Amino acid sequence: MISIVSTVGVLAQGVTTGSLGGRVQRKDNGKTIPLSGATVKAVHVPTGATYGAIVRSNGAYTIKGMRTGGPYTVTASFIGYQSQSRTGITIRLGETSTTDFVLEESSTTTQDVVVKATQDPAFDRSKTGSGTVVTDQMIQAAPTINRSISDVARLNPYANQVQTAGSDGLQGVSIGGVNSRFNNFQVDGAVANDLFALSTAGTAGGQANANPISLDAIEELKVNVSPYDIRQSGFTGGLINAVTRGGTNTWTGSAFMYGRNQDFVGASPDANRRPFDEFSDLQLGGRIGGPILENKVLFHLTAETRQRRTPIEVGLNDPNALNNFPASSSVMDEIIRVARDRWNYDAGAWDPFIVRNNTVNLIGRIDWNISEHHKVQIRHNFTYALQDRNVQRTAVNFSLSSQGNEFTSINNQTVMQWNGILSDDLSNELRVSFTRTNDERVLGEDPFPQVRVQVASGVNVVLGPERSSQANALDQTQLAITDDLTWFVGDHNITIGTHNEFNWFNNLFIQDYYGSYQFPSIDAFRDGTPNQYQVSWANESVTGGEQRPRTTWSMMQVGLYLMDEWQVNDDLRLVGGFRVDAPIFTTTPYENPVFAARFPGRSTSEVPQLALLYSPRLGFNWDVSGDRTTQLRGGTGLFTGRVAAVWLSNQYGNTGMDVFRAAIGGNNSQNVIIGADGNPIEFDLRSDRTPRPGDSTFPGSISTSAINITDQNFRMPQVWRSTLGIDQRLADGLTLSIEGMYGAFLNTVDYANINLKPSGIGVSPIDGRPMYAGENGDSLVAREFTQVLLLRSRNEGYQYSVSGSINLADNNRWLPGLSAMLTYTYGHTYDLNSGQAATAISQWNGTDAIDPNNATIGRSNFDVPHRVVFNASYRHVWAPGYTTTVTLFYAGSSGRPFSLSYIQDYNGDNALGGNDLIYVPRAEDYNSKVVIVPPSGTDLRTPDQVWTQIMDLIDSNPVLKEYQGQILPRNALREPWVHQLDLRFLQRIPTTRKQSLEISLDIQNLLNLLNAEWGLQRFVNFQSFNLFGLGLVGGKPFDEQGRLRMTYTEPVTNGRPGIYFTDNFFSRWRMQLGVRYNF
Amino acid sequence: MKNTAIILFLVLTLVGCNESVLEFPVPLPARVRVVNTSRDADTLSVIIDSTTSLKVARGTVSDITEVGAGRPITFLVTYRDVLIGRDTARYTLGAKGSIVLFARGSKNKLVSFNSPVQDTALAVDEPNAFVKFTNASEYDFVEAGGLVEVFTGTGDKVFKEQYPPDITSPRWSRIAPGTYTFILREAGTTRELARLDNVLLKAGASYMLFSYDRNPPTLDDIGLAIF
């Protein structure tokens, strides 16, 4: 069996099935002549499913829609000729396996010929683009603890795991340096993305940390980067397609248990070296498959559950702790007491918090082999997940347990697929999928606002329901219909097809529904005198009395395509196609007349105009040597993706019509809110109705709204991707592949706040960046609104890469049983906006820029210039049935890029969070262009000492030196290199009959187990660090002479000098034991 | 496998150069001395930046110790293993700077550092000595408003100003090298509160004279010391 990872190209012939093709010929005077009319029959041995085709006039035959896997026995026959059979044929997902026959006349032989087939998937004629097939055997051998898709998809050289820093959460997969939100994840060809795209994993149920499907249910996985098959679409990152297991004529099954606890996790990566707090993780499940009606109706069922309890680790006044909250427990006790005695609210506890995470995965599949010509498959996938969310305990925020909520996610997907051979030259594949996902944040029974109590400068204890969870639920429904009709004519396979998605969204998201208060002290909390208050409430005249209005909207995307696969000759195969997709918005948002008056030509009710998205593609495969030892492959084409639905939903939910919003006071201000009488306003946190403008107790009458709109010319993103690769067979079982890729992004997502007015001074005198008017009254075009955020498309951004890989198959002649892969990929990806956030405001101000309203391309947040992947798996057979498999996986990659920005608002765009990229000063700038604000208070340095520190930092870094006198580009710097070394040990012991027992041990981050200082993963929060401060005077960072007023203190993170957080979870080694019984 | 391992090693060597990784150069350290003038803690333990540990008896000064500069560092102050000062003890010191920190206050009210004093760099050929004064005592003589003055044994006033508690003289006083007696007086009177004899002052050196409560909580039992 071939068990290498193939990094060679893939022409996906079908999204859930594979194909078989080739030629049937006869010999005539030494020449081969097509044997038109011969019959080819393929039998899937485990299920008895039979597929057939008639050889065409040119000798070619094609069978489409075949079940993946095998073994197949393929027989060619013709009257007067001796039949020939090939056994052991494997059909791979989305590929065309090639099997040729040369029949001899009956008179020359006495019996049918049966030959064991040999296949090398690396040299299949159908391979054109780039992709990786992960087989069942590889999935079983892959080191994994979470048993997630990403743990096997990472074998693709372009696929980089994306983790949620500091958490035990599922990891997403960035492909080609692009956000996982731009991937298309499919199960049996049906979309299984997190369409709304709120989770890091990017898959349905990901928000509650659930795998979208049990790994046990997956028979084969394919990661595609540039499939030139025109049917493949819905991504500008990559396409991940999982094909589920089906039943066979033999009753087979498996039951498993994987478990770990705190003793299976390394010590804290800090000076304390503390053991992990109370922790447990148990995964139980099994699968069974067999015949309902032999050869006709077969079923397969997989069930799995996971119960996980993960601690949130934080130290209280413990400077040695990695995550230290600088306040004592007595402070929190006092806040809890005030909440109880003054506000009659149970704020919860500060005790160690254990996050519950329970999941259930069920998947059932029925295969009905109606006849040789017709096959039907029906599948249902169910996922349930529960996770405790929103209790955050960091160095600056400590959530009491009342902050938390139960996040529940339920996902149901039903898929029906019909594969039919309509005639000798016509086949059809129809697939219909229906998916529903229901996410909800379940709060406690006692509604209460969120309360932040400052206990030190910038340090808060937080209680009450988290502000974004106070009214938060999401229902998604999708109906997808796909039909592909293929016509076999001569050397051509011509496919005409359609793919159509109908999406319905029902979103409840009202931030601060119960209100959010911030108090400068415990006394102020007791008095009810906040320094900041935010609230949102429904405009019941618009919502018809509904106090918790939902955003309901729908859209569809219809696609038509035509493709020709042309086997030009034995050595050259071409595939070309043309696709048209049309996104159509079928719901109109509310019209806001005030907005329309303030912004002529714009409207909150306008949705993107209908625009056709064209995707022409052309791919080729050329057997240069003629004997399939050297293969050249490649292609070029457009791929149309999708955006996170939440970005589109933002317009529907932020028209300023159905929900109003008010915010008063200042973040971290020490000044409580003062009323008209000059006295602090006392708020009633137990009021039946959240205080709002118009109330007698509410200061002023200002109510503002953020408006989100989408440009009428907005388009779904596309990438024009071109690849060229060569595969060279170095020896039997040893292959070298080199591939280059270039992609140009079209319709890149971009944001602008069109409510900002330019300032009078135009541009910064220091570095020329555009300046906005800041917080003064003239800063906004329309004062009725805070931000007016425009989602638009721009044709900017690109990616390129070169990848080399060496693959060793386990049937190699040097050490049979050893399969190995070594790849190195160099590349870069540049974009306008990496799509890290969900809300429009975070998308806009979360992307560091020179001018946030006119972003320029910079390195993607997912840019990985260097990536090395090594995977080796060795299987040793001690005795029949007694096998030991050891797999070692290593991935080393450049750290994530990050930006440096100012702490304060440099350009007056009112963006919070520091989105202004730094100007890198030169030595000669001191006192001419830049001055240092004299330190004061406990900062005992002189300005000269501060300046020397800045210059020393710049001199020490080549990138900072390179950009002296300029603005540092976005993501110019990098986190430290990341090393990930994982191990899996698997021992199989036979029991009775063909049954066996398996014992496994998985170790992730093995380096940390070998040495506590190794395997540490260090990161910069949000990939942006506010390095320099500004001495603002009147909202401007310049002094009277136009010099930049700077401050600087060497940053301290995790209690140590520097800017890198050490990941408290992924920096530790983790281990898991497993037991499995196969029957 | 051997060849594979070599290739892997070469590749990792080639690409593992951590380009563009931002690391912060370590500034030259600052020099710190801590003076214990706290009322209740006869011996203070001071942990600086989680690395340097000092023990300072009341009325004495620690040796000069080098600590990290350029970033806020924490001074943990403990008395008999009880943390008595923290939140107020974060300072950012300049590279190569010298600083004197007076630990003041009560163990019950958290010790804080008052009057951080930057040393002055003196010229090598400076013929005089220089003296500063910090009033770290709790003088309770109400009629004089708690003010004190410093004189030499010959009756010369060393500093022009009168000093309330917690105040350090704003300027260095230039004084000829020699052996001196310093006397602390209640301001505007001849009442002697404390005396320090046989103090040798060398040319080109700077000195810090300070008062402290010698026997707290008893008031007006004041000591005078210099370093």
Walk me through the topology.
The complex is a heterodimer of chains A (1079) and B (227).
Chain A: E1 18-28, E2 31-34, E3 39-44, E4 49-54, E5 60-66, E6 69-78, E7 81-91, E8 96-98, E9 101-103, E10 113-116, E11 131-134, H1 136-141, H2 150-153, E12 159-162, E13 172-175, E14 184-187, E15 190-191, E16 218-224, E17 239-244, E18 252-261, E19 280-293, E20 297-312, E21 315-316, E22 324-325, H3 329-343, E23 353-369, E24 374-389, E25 397-399, E26 405-423, E27 426-442, E28 450-456, E29 459-463, E30 472-489, E31 492-509, E32 516-519, H4 522-527, E33 532-538, H5 540-543, E34 551-567, E35 572-585, H6 593-598, E36 613-623, E37 630-640, H7 645-653, E38 659-665, E39 705-710, E40 718-731, E41 734-746, E42 748-753, E43 758-763, E44 770-772, E45 785-794, E46 798-808, E47 818-831, H8 840-845, E48 858-859, E49 866-879, E50 882-893, E51 897-902, E52 930-932, H9 943-956, H10 958-962, E53 973-974, E54 978-990, E55 996-1004, H11 1006-1010, E56 1018-1019, E57 1024-1030, E58 1044-1047, E59 1052-1053, E60 1056-1057, E61 1061-1062, E62 1070-1078
Chain B: H1 2-15, E1 30-36, E2 43-48, E3 52-57, E4 65-67, E5 72-79, E6 82-85, E7 90-92, E8 98-104, E9 112-118, E10 129-136, E11 148-152, E12 167-168, E13 173-175, E14 178-186, E15 192-201, E16 206-213, E17 222-226
Parallel strand pairs in B: 1-8, 10-16
Antiparallel strand pairs in B: 1-4, 2-3, 2-5, 5-6, 5-7, 8-9, 10-12, 10-13, 11-14, 14-15, 16-17
In words, what does this structure look like?
The complex is a heterodimer of chains A (1079) and B (227). Chain A has 1079 residues and is mainly β. Helices cover 7% and strands 47% of the residues of chain A. Chain A contains 11 helices and 62 strands. In chain A, the strands form 12 sheets. Chain A has a 22-stranded antiparallel beta barrel. The relative contact order of chain A is 0.10. Mean pLDDT of chain A is 91; it is low at 1-14. Chain B is mostly beta strands and 227 residues long. Chain B has 1 helix and 17 strands. In chain B, strands 2, 3, 5, 6 and 7 form a 5-stranded antiparallel sheet that branches. In chain B, strands 10, 12, 13, 16 and 17 form a 5-stranded mixed sheet that branches. In chain B, strands 4-1-8-9 form a 4-stranded mixed sheet, with no helix packed on it. In chain B, a hairpin with a 2-residue loop joins strand 5 (72-79) and strand 6. Chain B is globular and about 70 Å long. Chain B starts with a helix and ends with a strand. At the A-B interface, strand 47, strand 49, helix 9, helix 10 and strand 53 of A face helix 1, strand 5 and strand 7 of B.
